[in-house]
Amino acid sequence: MLRYLTTGSRRFGLFPMYVHQRANWEFFAVVHGRCGPLFADAPPAALRHRSLWLFPPDCAHGWTGQGLHACRVAIFHFGAVPPVLDKLARARGHLEQALTVSQAQRVLDLQRELRPHYQRVTEKSLLIFERALLELSLILLEDIPFQDPETKASHAIRKVDASLTWYSEHIAEQPGLEQIASAVHVSVSHLRRLFWQARQESPQKAFARLRVQRAMELLSHTGLKLDAIALRCGFSSSSDFCRVFKNHQRISPDAWRKQQLPSYQEPARPGGPAVP
């Protein structure tokens, strides 16, 4: 689910972007020139040329650049990312991947392909957003080694994925753990062990995140009221929905829906126009 999209030239060396948190997952690519992230209470990171970063919503960061030189950037904000990226990025603070020339061009192509759908969202747009998210995710994962899972780990992953899929299809019915475990042919206690083995989290936490992600989709792309969204996403009431949503996103559903994420603009020079 794409929440924000922009590209353009930045002079972060002259006008650094201040350190702050974003409301969504941020994919940030520099495709020409050099820039690097800034973090609170830490020295500036090395400036990178042709790189892609991913930052979780709770990772406060800004940007610096190379003196007077401009860099070209492309920025994508998504409400959620695939579980493997969620896990890795939160564990490491953020992810970074060097881009080849062809990958940098593909990032720019994605910007152009997404732009008309970002400006006028249709049901087809959601599939195109999902495809772009997967492409960006695979670029980030390219140099991260993954070991072949052992038999037990493979079993855990399959069962956990099956339970998440089943839950997603029955989310409005508010199924309990007993129903979910029965659907994938394991006991409740075994389901809990499988989730911990595969994801290092409880099934309740994973299912709650699915409900919030579904709610974010409805908040972004429908005009449904909170009561209707709560029912569709398996919450017992709108107040329960608001409480869980705010716990996950640190903002109310209404505020999240109304929130606009304006593109970064450099301040105007005294007596002259803004720097492009």
Task: Map the helices and strands.
Elements: E1 2-10, E2 17-20, E3 25-38, E4 48-55, E5 61-65, E6 71-78, H1 83-92, E7 95-98, H2 101-119, H3 123-141, H4 151-169, H5 177-183, H6 188-199, H7 203-221, H8 226-232, H9 238-249, H10 253-258
Antiparallel strand pairs: 1-6, 2-5, 3-4, 3-5, 3-6, 4-7
Helix pairs in contact: 2-3, 4-6, 7-9, 8-9
In words, what does this structure look like?
- It is a single chain.
- The protein has 276 residues and is α+β, with helices and mostly antiparallel strands.
- The protein folds into 2 domains: 2-141, Jelly Rolls; 151-258, Arc Repressor Mutant, subunit A.
- It has 10 helices and 7 strands.
- Strands 1, 2, 3, 4, 5, 6 and 7 form a 7-stranded antiparallel β-sheet that branches.
- Helix 2 runs antiparallel to helix 3, helix 7 crosses helix 9 and helix 8 packs across helix 9.
